[in-house]
Design brief:
186 residues, transferase, 3-stranded antiparallel β-sheet, GNAT family N-acetyltransferase, globular, alpha+beta
Amino acid sequence: MITWRRLHEGDFALLREWLAEPHVARWWHHDTSAEAVARDFGPAARGEEPSEDLLVMLDSAPVALVQRCRFADYPDYRAELAAQIELPDTAVTIDYLIGDPVRVGRGLGPRIIETVVAETWADHPDAAAVVVPVHATNRASWRALEKAGLRRIGTADLDPDNPDDDRIHYVYRIDRPADAIPAPLA
């Protein structure tokens, strides 16, 4: 069973371990010092930033992190992407990692993405779509998006997380299903 909760500061040691794992470090390219993790994840954990950092559990064991946010809360990023692809004003995006290396390559990524996307329609009733840019060479990531039902809608020229990579990203999208649209207010 996949569940999640907001990341807490008490989870930072685990997150540091995950960010140091080679399969994560390759794509996230994040400083794993205690100070850097506290600086970059602390504001969301304390509710000072609009993004959601979600600690994902499989049968109550932590296995992954999902970051979810509205593009509208990050106007510079929204403008950069909207200049290159059609981006609804109310679109949400996610980023994700499977931290536990034992779980990589076993179909967990698509299950997590599918579950988080389905819950996004309830958690963000005005979200028209989930749109996810992913580096073009990160095949495992974009295949997980495809398996979770997102479709590639184009490419975008964006700063990569890893400075060794070029700027080419594939952009994936899934629209709110008709049956997930909230009823109009009376």
